[in-house]
Amino acid sequence: MNRPNMAPPTMAPWPLVMLAAPLLPFATLDGTALYLPQIPAALALFALSVATILARRLPGSALGEALLLLAGVAAAYATPLVLLTQGHALAQAGGLWLSVAGTTLLLWRVLALLADVAGPVRLAGPALFGLALVMLWEILTRGFQVPTILLPPPSLVLTAFAANAADLWDDFRQTVLISVLRGYLIGCGAGFLVAILADRVPFLARGLLPLGNLASAVPVVGIAPIMVMWFGFDWQSKAAVIVVMTFFPMLINTLAGLQSAERIQLDLMRSYGAGYWRTLAMLRLPCALPFLFNGLKINSTLALIGAIVAEFFGTPVVGMGFRISTQVARMNLDVVWATIAVAALTGSLLYGALALAERHVTAWHPSFRKR
Amino acid sequence: MPAAQPAPLTLVPPAAEPAPRTIVDIRNLTLTYQAADHPVYALSDVSLSISKGDFISLIGPSGCGKTTLMRVVADLEQPTSGEVTVNGMTPEQARLKRAYGYVFQAPALYPWRTVERNVMLPLEIMGLPKAERQQRAREQLELVGLAGFERKFPWQLSGGMQQRVSIARALAFAPDLLLMDEPFGALDEITRDHLNLQLTRLWLSTRKTCIFVTHSIAEAVFLSTRIVVMSPRPGRILDVIDCDRDLPRERTLDIRESPEFQRIAHRVRDGLMEGHSYDD
């Protein structure tokens, strides 16, 4: 919603819970609880946070207020990290966590303000949200000394990422650039072509659709070892698993898309004496595009899952699935997390690229059109 | 003064107008289809002959087969028995030769094409070069009063404008025969009046043969040279009314107040009554 001429909504009082923080200990040092006035660094940062709340009206614009409050949030999030480097323990620091909780509520307001700002600044909202989650993850895992086997802090994952960059790149190349890409293209391509065939030959569609339901119910951990036995350790077996997983979603979506052209539009093509292929190219495929993209998007995530799971059952000593299974066995959970991060990032980028292409190609569709 | 002198010789003798060429000839057309438990007689023994330059309206209540009749002419529906010729060919040959333009009840524009490219669609199928396609599309859009909307998408236009685009599309490849299936049925009355006026001007200037399906008596009388009154169950022709004798070819909206217009409208209504169209 655009509310250009309205004053920004008044602030909810919840972030003010942080004003109770000085009443509780902010850290413990060698078993002694320390309060805010006893730790100069924490006191300074806390004062900064409170000051930004008090001064929030000064900038006079939503964006200015958001930036000012953001500085307050950053100060509060920095406090535990500073205290940890000074050798404090934080597990019993009630006041500190209260201030972190209060500023997290303050971040809520920052995001709400940014959502109302016009222009590319809006995009900063989701990015800040993600960054805040990572920050909280870092603060909480380190503050409460969560064992790294259970959940390593992001900084440790990043270190592992940097230390193993060469391996991770090799894994990425083997799994994504070789197995996933080939399997995905073969699976989606075959699903698309067979759908066009099945659309022309009705008995094929009637025979294949029940098979599609069957195939989608087959667990990937069941087919993966079989495919490894059939096609060997290299990318061929991974591609085969992906083909099995992606073929039917593409087939079903394409078939539904081809049937989505309206009677009246088909009559129009017929009245022009247009034949099957011309009708397909000029009417039915454009109509099917939203369905095609649906299938491609579903398959982009399925393909990555398929390849990684299949690599558990045999692979040359490279690949994301191989890395996860071997590093778990060695308790190197930070490397596992780094691999998971690569996989998640890859999946999101693939999906995002497809969604962007869909927006571009089917801008005419009611779900995207702008007047 | 010319009035006092004998008429000067002209190349075409005024009395001997050439016999109008038959464009559509329908003989003993019957169309039945099998519903769940009984056969439905959509058309029963329909015969009709349409000459070049005619504007024929098919009027009747829902289910009287007027749309079906037109779809048979367009080869979108197969008759059970009887004969239909379009330009002396079977409907299928005529369709493949693109002898007619069809305007549907809904605009049926393709949302992924701009207005201009929608009008160019039949031309693309015919394989015309791009420059000519573009020029013809521009001309037709101008003819239906939509110059300047070439780059818009159909969903950016009002319903009346969309239907005008679909008329421009039907005219774009210059067919001699224009088939229109309740093209203005979904529009409000003011838009409809406006489009009726545009259509009658278009027909006068292009001299196309038109078959027009409608529910509206006023619309039928206003536009037509002949009105075909149909009745349902089974679909058949009740009456064919010649409007050309009493109404001028060039018509304006106020013609609807004239006694001639009222008389024809009355006769159409009588015909519909006779077919018990108001019973149910």
Describe this structure in words.
The complex is a heterodimer of chains A (371) and B (280). Chain A has 371 residues and is mainly alpha-helical. Helix content of chain A is 71%, strand content 2%. Chain A has 13 helices and two strands, in the order E-E-H-H-H-H-H-H-H-H-H-H-H-H-H. Chain A has a two-stranded antiparallel ribbon. The two termini of chain A are 16 Å apart. Mean pLDDT of chain A is 87; it is low at 1-5. By secondary structure, chain B is of the alpha/beta class. In chain B, the strands form two sheets. In chain B, strands 5-6-7-3-8-9 form a six-stranded mixed sheet, with helices on both faces. In chain B, strands 2-1-4 form a three-stranded antiparallel sheet, covered by helices on one side. Chain B is globular. The model of chain B is unreliable at 7-16 (pLDDT under 50). The chains are: A mainly alpha (371), B alpha/beta (280). Chain A binds chain B through residues 262, 264-265, 267-274, 278, 282-283, 286, 289, 362, 364-366, 369, 371, and chain B through 74-76, 95-98, 100-102, 104-106, 108, 110-112, 121-122, 124-126, 153, 155-156.
